[in-house]
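Incident review: delayed structure delivery

Summary: a single-chain prediction request sat in the queue longer than the usual turnaround. Root cause was a stuck worker, restarted by the on-call engineer. No data loss occurred. The affected request and its eventual output are reproduced below so the record is complete for anyone auditing the incident later.

Affected input:
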Amino acid sequence: MPQYSRMCGALLLLALLSCSLPAAEFRAAATKADITPADLVALWGYSDRSGPATGTRDPLYAKVLLLDDGATRLAWVTLDLGRPFGGESMNLVRDRVRSSAEVTHVCFSASHTHSGPAIDETYEPGQRPAWETAALDRIAAAIESAAAGLQPARIGTGEGSVFIGHNRRYLQADGSVKMLWRNATRTPTHPLDPRVGVIRLDNADGHPLAVVVNYACHPVVFGPDNLEYSADFPGAMAEVVETSFGPDCVCLFLQGAPGDINPYYDKMKLEEGAETLMRETGRQLGDEALRVAKTIETVAPATPQIQIAFETRHFKPRYDSEQLLEQLRRQGVSDHYLERYRIYLATPMDCVVTTALINREIAIMGMPGEPFVEFGLNFRDRAPAKASYFAGYCNGYHGYFPTIRAAVEGGYGAVGITARTEVGAGEAMVDLAVIRLLTMQGLLKTEP
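Output delivered after worker restart:
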């Protein structure tokens, strides 16, 4: 009996201590780092450029959103770059901030601007470009700064709609695909995703810390004749939001699934007013994002929880790489770009699927390349969450991911060297993310 009494007393004490423990607190911070190269290097995105960068038109930023639930600390880094860094480079940052700032997970996603510096997946020892080494250091320092500035936060979501682009694959009556690069007349095309998804984070007093804007459209208002670094329209969009909310608010652009989506004004020449059209495109998106952000009511989560999974799927090549290179050689592609393509084709197609669930209400999926727009639409339709967001160019880059139907129809991004991964890879990755979210929500049991 005395032993039983002692046991009951111990259990009661444990229960009282558990009740007295403070509930986990949702905390956040946001900051940004200028990663514009100090030197003039080759630019990303167009193979017909006349040379390397000649200067800076507008700065390129890495923007950091840091979230903390008391157990998990997630840094989401958006990049004004054509693609994320290679795996080794990303891991340098992850390893550093894991020990220096107790950041358990770091996600990288790029806007896909075609006016940023070229990036390779891997480099020979000691050959990583100086600008990239400097950028990685600044990003790690920005994450560390954010960790030092974590504070109690409130969060909310909203969405709007704006039309600044079109589907560039125009399916003709005979079943063939015509590439509709520009669409100044705004001819309706399909499929399209005009949704502007917004996540707003405030401090405890309700002042904005960060606004995340999710939208699907290629940042290619500037064409190959622009040789200056530029974030293209996502940078102009962010400027609209940050100017309105003030210097303490960071606006992050989360690129969606724009693999077949172009701005109405595509690859405009400088003499055609590309600068003005880029800023106007960004202003339209920024105005809508700002309107939505101002309507969002943020709340402090009662039971904060950050869940995230990185799952690697290996896919087979769709084509023989030597045949692809020979085809490019016959088309007159320079030796410089042939070598870059050779490195690209030699990269194993180990695709990291990123799935995040924030406070059991906000779902984010990341795909490591250029997804066609239907993948973003499909994920949002199926995601078991109050609000869902799709991010392309996330934690890796493996070219285009066309839908199965698009792979049959053809057109740029659906066939050839840009679509080197086996058909069905995109569908498989969306399925994997939805399954992971169902498991995180407890809807899909892991035991019989």
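Verification: The chain has one domain: 27-440.
Action items: add queue-age alerting; document worker restart procedure.
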